[in-house]
Amino acid sequence: MIGSLANQARKKWAGKVRICVVSTDKDLLQILEDKDHFWNFSKDERISGKDVSERMGVRADQVAELLALTGDTVDNIKGLPGVGPNTAAALLREFGTIDSMLANLESVENLKSIRGASRIRSIIEANGAILEKSRKLTLIESGLAVEKSLDRLELGAVQRKELGDLFEGLGIGRLLLARLDKLERGGSLKKPEKKSESDGTKKSPKKSAKEAAVKTEKKSAKKNAAKSASKKAKKAVRKSAPKKAANAARRSAKKKMPTAPTKTAKRSAKKAAKKKAK
């Protein structure tokens, strides 16, 4: 429905409308044109049609075929085994479409931009049926006549009570209603930027990234130092173990050896002998 409505709007208001797709589903990136926007409302993140290639590695019109090659676990689409997003993007950048790739399979194994290109060719040849099915599943239909009059879709006032009753009956929508109420009160859905503890000023993203990198480096240095100290300690223990064992053996041998009689013991023995002789 979303793809078809977007297509209908473009035909009716050619050049006068920009489409904004409100969703968290990355599959819908494929219906964007350069001036359109994708709004992930849960993260308050916007992606323009021309920025899709930076995000996905391919143009918006290639997203469906990218997902067909890689598969999509969320939608239970298999895709080609062993083909990840980087490989799939490299194939589409080289050939443009899956059809062009299939028509030039012998060229796949010669691609220097793909590691194990000959293996990738074998995977494509062995999984042609899966690839074709995946293509059908990832493509969003945009030619349906969903609405006879798009004017009916003009945004009006929110029917808060009716919407609340519907959500309550379905057992959904509490968070959405809370967000809606916040907007109606003039609030914003944007998350407040973090402030530094020292002066209360906003942290710049670049500075935060640098601080995170420094912290990571310090942790890594401490970890490496601890490992080094542990290795040295173990080595020292191994070296000292034979000496300790030898010393312990000598002490044990001394304890077992008979002790020489003392002078007092000798005198006592002589007296006892004399008494016995008498």
Describe the fold and architecture.
The protein is 56% helix and 4% strand. With 278 residues, the chain is mostly helical. Among the domains are: 2-138, DNA polymerase, domain 1 (Orthogonal Bundle), CATH 1.10.150.20; 222-253. A 3-stranded mixed β-sheet has the order 1-2-3, with no helix packed on it. A hairpin with a 4-residue loop joins β2 and β3 (45-48). The termini are far apart.
What is the topology?
Elements: H1 2-12, E1 20-22, E2 37-40, E3 45-48, H2 52-56, H3 63-70, H4 85-95, H5 98-103, H6 105-108, H7 117-126, H8 128-138, H9 160-170, H10 174-184, H11 205-256, H12 263-277
Parallel strand pairs: 1-2
Antiparallel strand pairs: 2-3
